[in-house]
Amino acid sequence: MTADQIILDPLLPWPVVWAALALVLLAVILAAWRGLSGWWLRGLAGLALLAALLNPSLQEEERDPLTDIVVAVVDESASQRIGDRAEQAAAALARLEAEVATRPNTELRVARVGDAEGDGGSLVMGALAEAMAQEPQGRIAGVVMITDGRIHDVPSAPQLPAPLHTLLTGHQDDWDRRLVVKNAPAFGILDEELTLTIRIEDQGEAPTVDTVPLTIAVDGGAPMKFDVPVNEDMELPLVLPHGGMNVLQFETPESEGELTNRNNAAVVQINGVRDRLRVLLVSGEPHAGERTWRNLLKSDASVDLVHFTILRPPEKQDGVPVEELSLIAFPTYELFVEKLEDFDLVIFDRYRRQGILPNEYLQNVADYVTRGGAVLVAGGPEYASAESVYRSPLGDVLPGAPTARLIEEGFVPRLSELGQRHPVTEGLEDLAPQPTAEDGTPGWGRWFRQIDVTPSPDATSIMEGPENRPLLLLQRVGEGRAALLATDQSWLWDRGYEGGGPQLELLRRLAHWLMKEPELEEEALWVEPAGQTMRIIRRTLGEEVPPLTITGPDGTETVVELQQISPGRFELQWEAPEIGLYKLTDGEESTVIALGPTAPREFEQTIATGELLTPVVEPTNGGVLRIEDGLPTLRDVREGRPASGRGWIGITPREAYLTADIRILPLLPAWAFLLLSALLILGAWVREGRR
After folding, report:
1. How far is CA 119 from the centre of its chain?
2. In this model, does residue 424 exceed pLDDT 70?
3. Could you tell me the pTM of the whole model?
């Protein structure tokens, strides 16, 4: 198309032109005041001279018209996949595409927005700003956002040169139920009560109920069921059941009609730590390793040690009165009757029955183990004798019976086949001061004495001595655990004999296994998350593990196979498709893990609303329309006029163009203006001369 317009290019600066115009007006006024009949001809002559000074030209432009652009931003975040919102959005976009296709000189640009990285939510405004930056602002005729209104970057809305409209998905009568766990600590002290605040809140047009079911499961175990009030904060007192990571899963069942169950569950991971480890060490016959035990336990600031030691055996007769053997009476009754349950671990180091501790006290220790306590016996020659602690009520919980045989020869302790897999001794050979020999002999020093024992049916032998005889035995007894170290020579590792060995690590693991620390469980399944990547770890004493089923936040199940990386340890790196709560089970072990928050930001508020966008839409004269009320038509509106109404939305035509060619021609040559001016002055002179 062509467009013509007159342009001015003054021959003199504008101030001079305005001054000349003033002189012309003054001359015309003076002529009229004097009664000259040709005053108007004088004025026209002056205007002709002024026109010559303005140098008017005719500009002809060849213009290529540019299309108007309508920008559509489609929210495809997780909350837009609830119910039929995705279908509503697709229908709205199809209608908009059809409306734009029927309009001449109009194009549609579509920008789609998924979930932001991490838990950023719906960053629709950022996507809109990016889409607008790719187009000339002078061509944008309108913006249409297809969303549920749950946008998390509204303050980042760009300046809009045209009306903004929101087509809202969802339904007016939608409702949803959400489970929220507040003030959950990352750490908790064992045996001390901590408090969680739980709230189940209803959003939208929810049915009226007073209470709803709530289940609480610990470490994937059997859930406990409760009825809790709705829309009220409820304080839950909690005592952590064990050390290490405690995984608490809270869940309320999905109700008929609610939007989604993605926010009906929450996982809280609290690391249970012991305030102090309380150990009772009972030392019998004095020997070279006794101080090693004491130094080992006292070196740990988190250990409260009570050391009961027998420095003078009863058979020693030296005439010293009994009342002069000690400054105070040792509180055996308080330790073995009243305060026994306060200890986390009881250690008997080369203790023999000498009548100092009656059988009733030892029976108390056996009962303490059965109820969940832990006992460790480090035996020397006395364990093989008639005075062995095994031949007391404590023998019922010990994992090995002495045969009365004493093996006294140098030997290098070895891990048994199960010991290669057991978490107490797994990888222990890698901690030896010297590398493993070619014949498989571990690179640590020798011991020189072992008590021959017969393992009980439920015992597990994880270390062996000469003739593959059991050296370190473990056993579960009722709710508790017991261990037997059938030698009194482990102190040689601590003293560095022949290079020594990892005594500290061995005894640390042994103590943690006895106290049921989760990281030392023989059969365990856990996950180490890193972003959306899971490192799945399965430990077992078996040769293989069954396939693992992973249930995602949306209920989809994925079956994977774990790969063996070392004896008894299977792992897999698995990339999760989205953040949320995942449940893992192989039929034997189960666990749950939350990648990101259990209920992502997209599911904190799920009811569709236009309230968040109203402050951005209103200044542009746009509108917020619900798709369920009908898909709107598209109209042209003038700039500044209301751009939405019942069943329609408006865009502002921009009439943008691209100039292809420009031609500039003077209206008249300069001599023509001078000739015209002269003729007008002559006419004025002739007219005035006739008077």
Report:
1. 7
2. yes
3. 0.67
